[in-house]
Amino acid sequence: MKTLLKSYNLSDNAIRIYVDGLGKSPYTFSEIQNTIPGLSEKEIKQILNELVEKSLILLVNPKYSESLPHYITVPPFTAILNSITESSKISEDIETKDSKKDLTLERFQEAIYQDIESITGDLIDAISTQDSSVQTTEILTEVEDNVKKFAYVILNEVIGLISPLKMQSAVDARDFNKLINSVRQKISESEEIVTNMFTQFRDIVKEMAPPDKNSQIEAFKIFIRRLGESIEKRVTEIPIGTGSIPSDKTESIKKSLNNILKSYINVNKASMEKFWNINNYEKIKEIISILFDKCTDNLTIIVPNIKTFIPLEKLELDYSEDLSSEKKAITKKTPTKKSEHKGLSITKKQKKEIEEKLDLTAKKVAELKGFEISHDIAEVLSLISEVNPESAAIDSIQGWLNRLLVIRKHLDSNTQYLLLENIEIWKKDYFKVKKKEEPEKELLDELKEKISEEKPFSIGLHLHLISSESHDNKHAMAFANKANTEYLQLKNNNVIAILGDNSYLIFGVYHQTSFKPTFEISGFFTTYSPMLDIFKPLIEDIKNKAKHTKEIEINRGFNEIIENINDYPGRKISKRLKRLIDVAFEKDGISLDILELKLLVGKLEKSYLPLDDEMKEYIINELNKLNKKFSTLELIYPPEFRPSILEEETEGELEVEITSSEIESLDPDKVDNLFELLIDKIDELKGVEIGEQIDKFIEVILKLQGYSEIIEWKQSLSTVNEPLEEPFKEKIKNDLLSWKKGILQQSLSSGVSTKEESVETYEQSQRIISKQETTASIFEEEYTSPGLAQSQFEDEENSSTTGDSDKIDTKLEMKEFFNKIQGNLGELSGTEISKLLQNIVDIILETEGYSMALKGIKDWISKLRMIRTPLETEIKEDFELEFLKMKQKYSTDDDETSLDFSPSFERIEESVEEGGSGNGETLIDKFNHLIQNAPNLNGNELSENLQDIADIVLQSHGAVAVNVIRQWISKLRSIKEPLEDEIKEEFLTELENWKEKLA
Hints:
Blueprint: H1 2-6, H2 12-21, H3 29-33, H4 41-53, E1 57-60, E2 70-73, H5 77-87, H6 98-128, H7 134-162, H8 173-208, H9 213-236, H10 247-268, E3 276-278, H11 281-294, E4 298-302, H12 306-309, H13 312-315, H14 323-333, H15 348-364, H16 370-387, H17 394-404, H18 413-429, H19 441-452, H20 457-460, E5 462-467, H21 474-480, E6 485-489, E7 495-500, E8 504-512, E9 519-526, H22 529-545, H23 550-563, H24 570-588, H25 592-604, H26 613-630, H27 667-681, H28 687-704, H29 711-717, H30 726-748, H31 752-780, H32 786-799, H33 804-823, H34 830-847, H35 853-865, H36 873-890, H37 904-914, H38 923-933, H39 939-957, H40 959-973, H41 981-998
Helix pairs in contact: 5-10, 6-9, 7-8, 9-10, 15-16, 15-18, 16-17, 23-24, 23-26, 24-25, 25-26, 25-27, 27-28, 27-30, 28-29, 33-34, 34-35, 38-39, 38-41, 39-40
C-alpha cells in the first residue's frame, strides 16, 4: 500500500494520515490533527488539500451538519489509475526484457488483490459498527422514566398533604376522598401524556434511522467485487509484448473507476444525514469554535467542566483581576483629591430660599397627589442645581421626581413618611459635593483598552455558559467578566448540551466507564429542526436549575419578596426564605444572620393571608438589614403599599392571620431554631463539613449563651473526610439535643418566680395564638362548622379559672372600649380605632362565640388599620353607622341617649326617610340615568356617578349592601377612557341587578 502511494508522489505524513483514516468513520479536522500532533494547522491543511486534489480523501458538508466539515478516506482508486497509466508509457530502456515486464505486472496484480481484500474487511467492519438511533432511543427512554417518576412523586406529595385533613372533624371526608381520587386520576393521565410524547419521539427517530445494515453491507460487497473485476479485466488487457496501454483503454479504466467511486458515495449517503456521532471532547471543542463564528444571537453551552470542553485558546480570556477589583485597586492607589470646585459658596439668600422651599414642600405632602407634589420637587431640584450642580442630593431628588410623576392619587402614609424623611436629608446634603473617584489617567486608559479589545463575537452574541465549576474558578471568573456573557453553576453536571441560534444542537452525556477514572462521551450533533424542538425545553430546564453566585441568588430572592410584598401571603414568603437559608448556609455556614432568617420564617409560615402594612414595613426593613450582611448589591425600592386582597386558599387548611406586632427575639427561641438548623443539615454533610459548621456554631452559641462541650465532636471529626456511619450520625444528633436541653434549662432556672412567670406568659401566648388562629379562620371562610367553633371556645373556657365573674368584667371592659371610641371618635386615628375594635371582637368571641355580624367589623378593622390620621368626614360617617349597629347589639348600656354621639346620624335618618338624594332625584332615577349614559362615559366618570348611588344605598340598606358597589367604584376610578365591551357588558348587568334589588 505504501509503495503504491509513494508512486503517487505522496509525502510520509500524507501517507500516514491516509492509511490511518482508511476504512474508518468520517473524520473532522481536529481528529485528523491528532494523528500527527507535531504538525501545525497550516501544514495539516496543506496535506488535506493535496489528498483531496488527488481524490484520496473526500471533503463532505452533510445536509444536517453543514457547519462541521468531515473528511472521508476512500480506497486508492486514483493511485491505482495513476500507476496503470504510468505503466502504459513506452519505456526509454529498449533493452528491457519481456520476462521482467511479466514479473512486474504479476506483482502489481497481486498487490492490487491484497489491497482489495484489506479494504473489503475494513469497510465492512466500519459499516457494521456504525452508530444507530438505539443510543438516542435509550437516552430518551431514561428521560421518559424520570419524567414519570417526577410526576408520580409530586402528585403523591399532594395526596400526602391532603390526606391528614380527613381526620379533622370540621372537614367533610367525602370531599377529600373525591379530591384524592381526582389526583390519582391525574397521575395516570400524566403518565399517558408522557408515554404519548415519547412514542411520537420514537417515531421521529425511526424515520431518521439509516437503512438496514445488511443491505448496506451487501452493497459494499458488490462494490468491492466490481472494483476487483474491473481492475483484473483492465490489467489482463495490458499488451505484454509492447509494454504499453492504448490511450482509449486508459480512458476506459479512468471512467470505470470514477463510476465505482460514485457508487461508494451513494452507499455511504445514508450515514451522512441528520445525525453525526460525537464521541470525544476534541470534536466538541471544534464545533464550539465554529459556532462562535457562525452564531449571531444566542449560544448556550452546558458542559461538565470548562477546561476540557471549551476552546479557551480561541477566546483569549482575560485572567487578570476582574474589572471591579481593578477599580478598587485604582481607588486605593489614587490619593483622594479635594473637590475641584474652588470656593463653592452659597449665599444666605440662596440657602434660605432652598430651605423654605423644602419646608413648604414637606407641608404639602399630605395634601396633594403624587404628580402635584412632583411640581414642587422639580422646583427644588432646579434651585439646588443652580447653586450646586454636583450636589450629593441631586440623584435622590431626581429619583423621587420620577416616582411621583406617575402617582395620580394621594400618597399612602408609608410613602409620605419616606418622602418627609428624605426631605430632611436633602436639607443637610444639598450643599455637599458628590464624591468622585478619579483614577490615574494611565490606568484608566488601560481599562478602556481592555474593554475595547473584546472579541467581535461578544458584541452581538449572548453567551450562556453552564458547568460544574464553582464561581470562583479562574475560567468561570474570566467568562463572568466578559461582555454579554452569563456564567451559571450546575453541580455534578454530566450533560453536554450546546444550542446555537436555535439552529445547531449537540446533546450527549459524559459518563464514567467501568475502568475508573476514565470517562467517555456519547452524543450527537445535528441541525435537524424536529430534534431541536424536542431538546430545547430540556436544555431550558437545565438552565433554570443552574445557579448564579450565592450573593446574587440571595439578593434576587429578597427582591422577589419585596416586589410582591402586597400579594404574597406570609406562608409563601416563608417558603422563599427557606430556600435562601439553604443558599446562605452554603455561602457562609451557620451564623447569626441565618438564625435571624430562620426566626423570620417561623413567624411567617403559619400565615395564609397577605400581610398588613405594619408587617410589610417590618419585613422590608429586616430584608434590607440582612441584605447588607449577605450581599453587596442593592435591593429594589419597595412598591407603594395597597390594601391586602384576601385570597381563597385551595389547600383546605385552616388559615391564620399573622399579627402585626413586632417579632420577639427571645433567647430560647433562637436556641431552638439554631439547633434545628444544624440537625437538619447533618445528613447532607461530610465529616469535615460537619466539623467546620460546629466551629461556626460554637461561635454563635458563645454569643448567645456562653460555653459548650460539643467542641469534642469538632476535634474528633476534623479529619474524617467522608460521610459518617449511621450510629455516629445518631450519636451526634442525640448529643446536640442534650446540649440544647441543658442550655434551655439553664436559661429557665434562674428562679421559681421567673419560672412561674414564664409559664404564665407561655400559657397566655398560647391562648392569644389560639384566639388569632380561630379569628383568622372564621373571617377567611364564609362558613365555619359550629362544632369546630364550639370546641375551640370550649378549650379556652376550660383553661380559664375565672368563672362568671370574669364574664362580668369582660362586659364592663367591652363597654369601656365602646365608650372610648364614642367619646374620642373625632380625635383617634384609624389605627387606634382598629386596635380598640379588635379588643371588642376578642371579647365577643370569648364570651358569645362567632356570629356573621363580626365579619363586617373585621372588614372595618382591616380598613382602619392603614389610616394613621383622624378619619375623614365620608369615612367617619360610614363608620358611625356600622358602630351604632354594633353597639346596639353588644353594649350593655341601656341609656338610649348614649347612641346619639354625632349629628351625622340625624342627617342620615332624615335622608333615609326622604328616600332620595336631597335634590328630588330618587335612587331608581339615578340607576336609570347611569344605565342610559354608561356607554358614553369614561371609567372615572362612571365611578363618580356610582359613588352618589353608593351614598344613598349605604343610608338605606347598610354597609353590606354597598360593599360590592364600592369594589366597582375602586375598579373604575383608574380608567380614564370608555370601558371595553366586555367590562361594559359586565358593569351594565351589575347595574340592572342592583336596580332590581335595591331600588
